[in-house]
Amino acid sequence: MHTPPSPPGPERADRSTVRIGALVPLTRPGWAGAGQSLLNGMELAAHHVNEAGGIGGRPLELVVRDTAADPRRAVAAVEECAGLGVAALAGEYHSVVARAAATRADALGLPFLCSSAVLDALTERPTEWVARLSPPQSRGWRVYADFLLGAGHRRITVATQPSAYWATGTRILRDHLAPRGGTVTELDMSALTPAAVCDALVDRRATALLLLVGHPDPAVPIVESVRGDHRLAEILIGAPAGQPEFAEWATPLGAAIPFLRYLPEHLGPLGARVETALRERLGQAPSFVAFEGYDTVTVLAEMLRSHGTDRTRVAASWPRVAVEGTRGRIRFSRTPGVSVWQWAGPPVQVVDRDPAEPDRFRILHTG
After folding, report:
1. What is the mean pLDDT of residues 114-130?
2. What φ, ψ does residue 46 adopt, rounded to 5°?
3. How far is it, in rounded angstroms, from Cα 95 to Cα 59?
4. pTM
5. 38 to each of 90, 92, 93, 176, 253, how far by Cα in Å?
6. Which DSSP string do the residues of 156-202 spell out, in sequence order?
7. β-strands 130-132, 341-343: how paired?
8. SS3 of 366, please?
């Protein structure tokens, strides 16, 4: 649809939209389910912002770009959004993709609030241009390691594939567990069959297997093989990265796979209202990623209302943010080892799906 040009001068400034670039994986090999969840949260927040008068009377518009879990596509999207005049960037689910986007946003001087990616070093150098809502991987995965210890697991095996994200997660687990009497051994799934995984678990006398792999392959064949092996009837299967939050991951793999989730035990009034609206929008219970999306746009909208749309002023306002989100009050600070402005307060849970009622989540541990 062709939009006629706006008139020049102050009237144009008053009537034009305020744009935020929204980076989301919507096609494979990206996790499209997570991307849709993230986007639905962002779209609902933008709708609420516009219902409340927009940004100084100007409507908020999301410029949506599909990253497809491809760092090069993400960089191209950042550059395109910068050229389209967005005031800021929001989103992204995949950590390696978010790192590429954050690095380019930093180079271009474009504020970027990352919704869901957790790599501690989201940029190689400290930056004033990037902030993040999700907890850094070092925090979340240490919470998961504490859950394993509390459940009596000391011999941990990880089935993994080559990735900076999986490698970092494995290192965090090993560094946290080793001083506490735990061991972490790796199985390279580029070289092993699911049957060989079962033999390795028996040989190592492992009590827990963590899936640091893609879906559906090799995750589903691994789980089917392990659960079909009578020697491994007592082994815990876990997925710390949070994939079982999404039905398309959980359904073929069944329940009782503990994973990380970034929700409080009880939502406050705002969170409850947003949950109801998201449930109506989605036709099902929203994932924690949808709440991350909602909070991302809510925070950026408040920053744009308070500080204007100039990119430098927006980036300078990270340390002054104090916004009520769906999962708590959001403020940004500097965290040791983290290169971006970080919300220090996101809730962290370890949960699983109840085998008797797979739509119900059981809280196993909080951190």
Report:
1. 96
2. -60, -40
3. 30
4. 0.93
5. 10, 8, 8, 30, 23
6. EEEEE-S-HHHHHHHHHHHHHHGGGT-EEEEEETTT--HHHHHHHHH
7. parallel
8. strand
pLDDT digits (tens, 9 = 90+) for 108-118: 999 999 999 99
Look at strands 332-333 and 341-343 and give their pairing.
antiparallel
Token couple for 233 = 């009837």
Burial grade of 362 (CB within 10 A; 0-12, 13-18, 19 or more): middle
Q: What is the rounded distance in angstroms from the CA atom of residue 289 to the CA atom of residue 36?
A: 9
- How does pLDDT run across 41-56, given as a tens digit for each residue? 999 999 999 999 999 9
Residues 53 and 241: their CA atoms lie apart, in Å, by: 37
* CB-CB neighbours of 10 under 10 Å: 8
User: Which segments of 254-365 does DSSP mark as H helices, in order?
Assistant: 269-282, 288-307, 311-316
3-state secondary structure 65-109: EECCCCHHHHHHHHHHHHHCCCCEEEECCCHHHHHHHHHHHHHHC
Q: Average model confidence (pLDDT) for the chain?
A: 94
C-alpha gyration radius of the chain:
21
Contact 24, 66 (CB under 8 A): yes
Cβ atoms of residues 350 and 137 within 8 Å: no
Q: Give the CA angle between residues 95, 67, 309 to the nearest 5°.
A: 90
Task: Give the DSSP per-residue string, 114-137.
Answer: ESS---S-SSSS--SSEEESSPPH
Q: Given 3-state DSSP classes, what are the helix, strand and coil percentages for the chain, each rounded to the nearest 5?
A: 45, 20, 35
In the chain, the amino acid numbered 249 is: W
Question: Whose CA is closest to 154, among 176, 122, 171?
Answer: 176
In this predicted structure, what is the pLDDT of residue 2? 36
Give the pLDDT confidence of 37-96 residue by residue, as tens digits.
999 999 999 999 999 999 999 999 999 999 999 999 999 999 999 999 999 999 999 999
Task: Work out the average pLDDT over 335-363.
Answer: 94
301 vs 52: CA distance, rounded Å = 11
- Structure tokens given for 152: 């009596």
Distance CA 180, CA 268 (A): 36
Give backbone dihedrals phi and psi of 164, rounded to 5 degrees, phi first.
Answer: -60, -35
